[in-house]
Design brief:
Rossmann fold; Hypothetical Protein Tm841, Chain: A,domain 3; 3 domains; 6-stranded mixed β-sheet; membrane; DegV_domain_contain; Glycerol-3-phosphate acyltransferase; DegV_C; acyl-phosphate glycerol-3-phosphate acyltransferase activity
Length: 493
């Protein structure tokens, strides 16, 4: 009995080793939980990082389920203990003690356990599972409903231990119970509950209804990761970058490495342009009756013409659709956090007026802080008066700036970049509460530094959500390469 308990504890600790988190950090120097759908599993690694690292994750996760079975049998423990060792590993994968209990779904770990428990039966059943999975366009539920009865029947024919026979049901139940705390809150917020069927059964495609939720728009200055913007349902209207006399859309098509290298090594000073009213007009009209209203969130009106362009577009649509425009008072990822707030409220069924009021209240809870690596670009843009004395004095310093509630503040300066970043982190630790916040660490061509900042903030502030993003070339044109910083949403709950 004692041996079984020790192996159960070992199985949980082994399952808690998140290969998705570790391999993504090695491969891409970021946290997989800040990419894609936020799940620390094989599928998200494949979509967000690549097939090769996903293959390593899958193999390691499968091994986490198989190793406990082999250990239990090597110690001549009963088969029931072996089955529950796989359960412990799957629970560890879902709620890893080493990673703040935020893990994956445990499907590969459960598969590894089944292969170790009943290798012949499981390998016979796998092609059936795969066939149904692909035939139903990725429905793991239907594939399980078809394949698991076959697996149970094959186990029964071999006259195995009863718990081994029913191990597929035990593991499926474990996976479902572990997933519920994550899925239920999101499902309850869905306005059209048929979206649950689409998620569980991808082949199911209900006739689309006219949405009663407002559509949320913002511009590319928000610098949101593509996966995050798509997941939240935020529509991005691109700014324009004027480079060598050519207007380039700030839509992700610009080679950022080459662009920032040019900023570092040449005397290039690009300019930028806000979207024309027609850009906002076309994007909203493309909704084609799919939304009851539209809300456009822009950077401060005194920093860019986005607000005026959006307002003109709203006026042109006044007789067909209610469109509201909000000056966020912040820019960059802080503006993106306001768009996330609006999009989440829209999905919960909030009215346009309620969303507007919530965004207005959030101005006190959302802001950003950053460290400039150079003053030349912001001097050339002429947009920030807060550091004008530094520019005039021709000092080689690294200013720490905040943007919140529509105001830019100089929080201090240092002679070295390292000390300026330390000052920024100290400011965040002093002014933000630990826990309950959403943070976006941003950078302009310095992902390594952004990842280090993110890791520090994970430990000190314990945010509920943390993302890493690269500033778009439009912001790079004004702030220059080497910019690093953090946007926060303090009362995200």
């Amino acid at each position: 009995m004692m041996q079984c308990m020790l192996v159960l504890i070992f199985s949980y600790l082994l399952g808690s080793i998140s290969s998705a988190v570790l391999i993504t950090r090695l491969w891409k120097k970021t946290d997989i939980r800040s990419l894609g759908d936020g799940n620390a599993g094989t599928a998200n690694v494949a979509r967000s990082v690549g097939i090769v690292p996903a293959a390593f994750v899958a193999l390691l996760d499968i091994a986490k389920g198989g190793i406990p079975v082999m250990i239990a049998r090597a110690l001549f423990l009963n088969e029931g203990c072996a089955v529950f060792c796989v359960v412990a590993a799957a629970v560890g994968h879902n709620y890893p003690i080493y990673f703040r209990f935020k893990g994956g779904r445990g499907l590969a770990t459960s598969l590894g356990g089944l292969v170790a428990l009943t290798p012949a039966s499981t390998l016979i059943t796998l092609p059936v599972y795969g066939l149904v999975y692909f035939a139903t366009l990725g429905s793991g539920i239907l594939a399980t409903l078809v394949a698991f009865p076959l697996l149970i029947y094959l186990n029964y024919l071999r006259e195995l231990h009863p718990l081994v026979i029913w191990s597929p049901v035990i593991l499926a139940f474990t996976t479902a119970v572990c997933a519920m705390p994550r899925l239920l809150p999101r499902w309850l917020k869905l306005r059209d509950k048929r979206e649950i069927l689409v998620e569980l059964f991808p082949a199911y495609s209900p006739r689309p209804l006219r949405s009663t939720a407002p559509a949320i728009f913002t511009d590319s200055i928000a610098s949101l990761p593509d996966e995050l913007a798509k997941r939240e349902g935020i529509h991005i209207v691109p700014m324009s970058l004027i480079l060598d006399g050519q207007a380039l859309p700030d839509d992700g098509s610009i080679d950022r490495r080459a662009y920032y290298q040019a900023l570092r090594t040449t005397n290039t000073h690009p300019t930028t342009a806000a979207p024309a009213p027609g850009e906002f007009l076309n994007r909203i009209q493309a909704m084609d009756g799919k939304a009851s209203a539209a809300l456009i969130l822009t950077p401060p009106a005194d920093l860019t013409q986005c607000y005026n362009s959006a307002r003109l577009a709203a006026e042109q649509l006044a007789d067909r659709l209610k469109v509201e425009v909000i000056d966020c008072g912040v820019a960059g990822p802080a503006q993106g956090l306001m768009a996330i707030l609006a999009a989440r409220l829209a999905r919960q069924g909030a009215s346009l007026d309620k969303i507007k009021n919530a965004v207005a209240e959030a101005r006190q809870q959302i802001g950003m802080i950053g460290v400039l690596d150079t003053l030349s670009f912001i001097e050339h843009s002429g947009r920030v008066s807060a550091i004008r004395p530094l520019v005039n004095a021709a000092l080689r310093v690294y200013p720490v700036l905040t943007l919140r509630e529509g105001q830019i503040h100089l929080e201090g300066m240092e002679r070295t970049r390292r000390k300026a970043i330390e000052r920024m982190l100290n400011w965040l630790e002093k002014n933000l509460q630990s826990g309950g916040s959403v943070l976006i660490c941003f950078h302009a061509d310095d992902s390594g530094c952004a990842e280090q900042i993110a890791q520090t903030l994970r430990e000190k502030l314990r945010p509920t959500e943390l993302y890493i993003t690269e500033m778009t070339p439009v912001i790079g044109a004004h702030a220059g390469p080497g910019l690093v910083g953090v946007a926060w949403w303090q009362a995200a709950s």
